[in-house]
């Protein structure tokens, strides 16, 4: 399956006193990666979804395997793939690698919701079309 890839350096602010990523920071990275995927991969401004379109994309399920330590200064390759597209939900797979080693694997389910009443709404046709185009292409994203 085609996906979205980008690079990220582990920053001092990501780490605990032992100099390794404090695990909740990975969740911040996931949220940022989804936003970046919309902006750069799907070419649908994430800020437009939350702003004028009033569509939220909260995480409703998250499974994470932390498979190796990431340290301050490590360069990570972050990859996101679409596993499943539902009526209002997306199942996403994350894999974060550094130095040839997988550091994290995760499965995340996000749901499109109305910011007016926080109830699920159908994924917009432009989002579905953009995901379809992405899955027909080679992996994309920032180096």
The helical percent reads: 10-25%
Strand-residue fraction? 35-45%
Counting DSSP H or I runs of 4 or more residues, the number of helices is 3
Major β-sheet annotation: 6 strands, mixed
How many domains comprise the coordinates? Answer: 1
Q: What is the β-strand count?
A: 8
The string of secondary-structure elements, in order, is EHHEEEEEEHE
End-to-end Cα distance, whole Å, is: 19 Å
Short description, anyone?
This protein is α+β, with helices and mostly antiparallel strands.
Describe this structure in words.
- The protein contains three helices and eight strands.
- With 143 residues, the chain is of the alpha+beta class.
- It has one domain: Thiol Ester Dehydrase, Chain A (Roll).
- The strands form two sheets. A six-stranded mixed β-sheet has the order 3-6-5-4-1-8. It has a two-stranded antiparallel sheet with strand order 2-7.
- Strand 4 and strand 5 form a beta hairpin.
- The two termini are 19 Å apart.
- The model has no long low-confidence stretch (mean pLDDT 94).
């Amino acid at each position: 399956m085609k996906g979205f890839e980008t690079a990220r350096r582990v920053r001092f602010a990501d780490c605990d006193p032992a100099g390794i990523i404090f695990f909740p920071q990975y969740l911040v990275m996931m949220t940022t990666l989804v936003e970046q995927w919309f902006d750069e991969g799907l070419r649908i401004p994430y800020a437009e979804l939350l702003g004028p379109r009033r569509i939220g994309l909260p995480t409703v399920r998250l499974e994470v395997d932390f498979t190796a330590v990431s340290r301050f200064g490590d360069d990570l390759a972050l990859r996101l793939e679409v596993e499943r597209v539902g009526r209002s939900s997306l199942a996403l797979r994350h894999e974060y690698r550094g130095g040839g080693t997988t550091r994290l694997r995760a499965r995340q389910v996000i749901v499109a919701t109305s910011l007016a009443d926080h109830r699920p709404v159908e994924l917009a046709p432009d989002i579905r079309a953009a995901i379809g185009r992405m899955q027909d292409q080679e992996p994309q994203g920032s180096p």
